[in-house]
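Per your request, structure below.
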């Protein structure tokens, strides 16, 4: 279908001469135009819930770098917020939430409607879609249940992964219930993003890293499959990309799922291994260490060239192995995009 964007064509199996490009955290503090709107909006949450500003911020990196896909500007923690958890973003510290303490909290969550409180997000999707050309795709997203649960349980970024793992062994029913509620809510949230105009969706499981195998299967592989399968059943044409960070060779377990169309590789994974073991089953995305874009120059270009060479004969989406950090010089991003388009 020629009216599809290069990004969607690639996810559907086409091999492009030059791969489609987008970057995790492509909108954000490294861009002066982002910082300007962020200051005008007030808090980070105010920015997420102002659909005019959020759609503008979503489009900023597309205008600046002519990327092939935009990612909805929002956050994985908007679901806990919509479930009624107090949420704030503390400058220099990251998110802070009222920790979930008891099964009673989960009963309250189960009854909550999240689509109403998140209406501004769907409005952002509609506005962004209207501002994008047909050759560009819009990616919707959500956090995978385990990663969202770590923030809900710890009340912020997980400082002690061992404590949460121990809690899972001691209170498996409690954690499973929370994962289950998040799974159900996330399915509805992603379908609503698709109905508002998202062309593909990505699930971020940043804290899949470090879980022992049977626990990873139960808390990450299983819930991600459940979400992706339900979304695909409801909206069969929409590709689903998985990004479970730091899972190493366990990546194989995800790419064997029928529900997984694309797989984001993190910067710690050997891309040659990924090409050999994942590249025949799903569309691989990403891999470049975001710190190489901070460094720039020959090391960045050499690593990009390695990825382009390894994946030249299979569908591949160029991206990072995690998000840009605020120290990233925008000029290095421009150089990288130019390099990919000259050497693809
Ligand atoms: O450009 C994009 O990638 C789209 C928007 C997006 C944001 N967060 C915006 C954001 C996406 C896809 C996310 C995902 C997200 N959020 C993840 C998964 C991916 C990953 O990075 O591991 C996680 C774990 C979160 C939770 C979160 N949000 C944290 C831990 C923080 C604080 C850390 C930080 O970088 O400040 C945020 C805040 C946040 N989310 C910012 C942005 C642009 C920075 C907020 C600001 O402008 O002050």
């Amino acid at each position: 279908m020629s009216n599809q964007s290069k990004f969607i064509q690639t996810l559907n199996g086409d091999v492009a001469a030059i791969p489609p490009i987008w970057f995790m955290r492509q909108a954000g503090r490294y861009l002066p135009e982002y910082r300007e709107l962020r200051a005008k909006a007030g808090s980070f949450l105010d920015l997420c819930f102002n659909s005019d500003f959020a759609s503008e911020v979503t489009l900023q990196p597309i205008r600046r770098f002519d990327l092939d896909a935009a990612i909805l500007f929002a956050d994985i923690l908007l679901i806990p917020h919509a479930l009624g958890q107090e949420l704030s973003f503390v400058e220099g510290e990251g998110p802070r939430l009222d920790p979930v303490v008891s099964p009673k909290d989960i009963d309250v969550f189960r009854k909550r409607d999240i689509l109403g409180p998140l209406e501004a997000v769907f409005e952002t999707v509609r506005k962004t879609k209207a501002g994008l050309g047909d050759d560009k795709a819009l990616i919707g997203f959500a956090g995978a249940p385990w990663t969202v649960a770590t923030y809900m349980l710890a009340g912020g970024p997980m400082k002690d992964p061992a404590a949460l793992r121990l809690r899972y062994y001691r209170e498996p029913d409690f954690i499973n219930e929370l994962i289950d509620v998040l799974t159900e809510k996330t399915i509805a949230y992603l379908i609503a993003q698709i109905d508002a105009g998202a062309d593909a969706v990505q699930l971020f499981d940043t804290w899949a890293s470090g879980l022992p195998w049977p626990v990873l299967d139960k808390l990450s592989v299983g819930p991600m499959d459940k979400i992706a399968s339900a979304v695909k059943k409801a909206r069969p044409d929409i590709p689903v990309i998985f990004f479970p960070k730091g899972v190493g060779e366990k990546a194989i377990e995800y790419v064997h799922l029928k529900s997984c169309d694309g797989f984001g590789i993190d910067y710690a994974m050997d891309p040659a291994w990924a090409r050999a073991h994942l590249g025949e089953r799903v569309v691989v995305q990403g891999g470049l260490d975001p710190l190489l874009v901070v460094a720039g120059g020959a090391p960045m270009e050499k690593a990009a060239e390695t990825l382009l060479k390894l994946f030249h004969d299979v569908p591949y989406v160029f991206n990072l192995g995690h998000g840009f950090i605020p120290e990233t010089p925008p000029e290095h991003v421009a150089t990288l995009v130019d390099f990919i388009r000259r050497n693809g």
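The pocket of coproporphyrinogen III is lined by residues 24-29, 38, 44, 71, 73, 75-77, 89, 94-95, 141, 143, 147, 157, 204, 206, 323 (CB under 6 Å).

Regards,
D.
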